[in-house]
Amino acid sequence: MNKKLLVFVSKIPGWLSTAEGSFLEQSTKKTARLEGTVVEIGSFCGKSTIWLAQGKNKVYAIDPHKGNVGEDEKYPPTYKTFIKNLQTANVRTSVVPLVKTSEEAATKWNKKIKVLFIDGLHDEKNAGRDFELWSKHVVNGGVIAIHDSFKKWCGSEKTAIKMIINSPHFYKIGAVGSIVYGIKGRGTMLQRLQKSFYRIVLLIAIYLNRLKITFFHFPKIIKTQLTVSVLINLITL
Ligand SMILES: C[S@@+](CC[C@H](N)C(=O)[O-])C[C@H]1O[C@@H](n2cnc3c(N)ncnc32)[C@H](O)[C@@H]1O
Q1: CA of 40 relative to ligand 1 center, distance in Å
Q2: Are 67 and 76 in contact, with CB atoms under 8 Å apart?
Q3: The pTM is what?
């Protein structure tokens, strides 16, 4: 993403950080060789959609756009702002908006998916259901990423632990900001070993986060080692 677009995207209302957006862009670029499309559940005003569209893939953006972000959080309808933002970012033609709930969109879905980004309703029932409905379409080598997986009040965290971190169906797992991601497939023996290491790191990070102890409180040496290890994991995405 170029600087001018980055400045524009940073001003779009939403909860996605630049690091998280950049991860989404990389995921779509690194899976370019795979068959399948990109699917986003929960687009809001288009911040994450624009990042996902940087890979020049078609992005199916699912959102009823009623401004319902959770039980206690309501916003005005977002569809018009969403489309306007896509146009300004010059990605309107790459995005197929599906103005429906994820459940409605899933009933007729029959395409393969290479990148699935889950960022719809964050309670355990809805986040878990989104995973169940959509993850089965993701091809081997494809990426599933769940936003807000480091928030103890949040069902997305439980879904990420159960469905990605503790699941045998991903040969590679990791985190960027509050995104937990997994790459689907069996992988090599070495990749599975690496995954076991990251599983422990991520579970520790999540439990420390519950105690309000974050990465920033760690001693410098551990911070450096973890940063290097996370960077290696990302570079080999
Ligand atoms: C946290 S926001 C998404 C933020 C967006 N990904 C971004 O980066 O700005 C959650 C979105 O999920 C949408 N949503 C609510 N219920 C949904 C459902 N059943 N299926 C899909 N999306 C839903 C809301 O309309 C809202 O726009």
Answers
A1: 9
A2: yes
A3: 0.89
Nearest atom, ligand 1, residue 130 CA: 20
Rounded Cα distance between 32 and 133, Å, is: 23
Ligand 1 binding site (Cβ under 6 Å of any ligand atom):
14-16, 41-45, 47-48, 62-66, 68-69, 78, 101-102, 119-121
**What confidence tens digit (pLDDT) does each residue in 130-187 have?**
999 999 999 999 999 999 877 666 788 889 988 999 999 999 998 888 899 999 998 8
What is the Å distance from ligand 1's center to 164 Cα? 20
